[in-house]
Amino acid sequence: MEQRLSLVTLGVHDLARARAFYEQGLGWRRGNTEDEVAFYQLPGLVLALWDRAELAADAGVPEGPGGFGGIALAYNTRSRDEVVEVLARARDAGGTVTKPATDTEWGGFSGYFTDPEGQLWEVAFNPFWSVDETGHTALGAADQD
């Protein structure tokens, strides 16, 4: 098996609300026109939004109660200032900032928000990683090829 991640699917309770958050709130563009699922092309992978009950049924697992699902998505930035900007945009779009941007013990700067469905996102500037002009994140700083 290749070391790769192709798709992240978020099971949501209210697809219309989730789409509005990502599309109108965050300004993302959907890559499909079907109503029952939303796909967003990201650098190197796809993010999908799908009805939570349908996702559970498709996976053959029972749908459990809400709460922390043991996963956090991450959005790495090119600067510390961009962390603050992204958290503010998420908050203004209806998300909840669960941890304001702060210096980290590992030398970076990060904060967290949840989208209106409770999906947890970390927004981080990591000075030891790079984010190129296309948005691809790589281990190692840009000047450490």
Could you characterize what this model shows?
This protein has 145 residues and is of the alpha/beta class. The chain folds into two domains: 1-61, Roll (2,3-Dihydroxybiphenyl 1,2-Dioxygenase, domain 1), CATH 3.10.180.10; 69-145, 2,3-Dihydroxybiphenyl 1,2-Dioxygenase, domain 1 (Roll). It contains three helices and nine strands. The protein has helices spanning 15-25, 52-59, 80-92; strands at residues 7-12, 37-42, 45-51, 73-76, 96-103, 109-114, 120-125, 129-131, 137-139. A hairpin with a 2-residue loop joins strand 2 and strand 3. The longest helix is centred in the middle third of the chain and has 13 residues, at 80-92. The radius of gyration is 16 Å and the shape is globular. The two termini are 26 Å apart.
